[in-house]
Amino acid sequence: LRNAPDAQVSFNCPKCDMAIYKDGGCDHMSCPCGNHFCARCLTSTRKRDIYDHLYSECEVERGIGRDFGVR
Question: 29, 21, 6, 9: which is closest to 69 by C-alpha?
Answer without folding.
Answer: 9
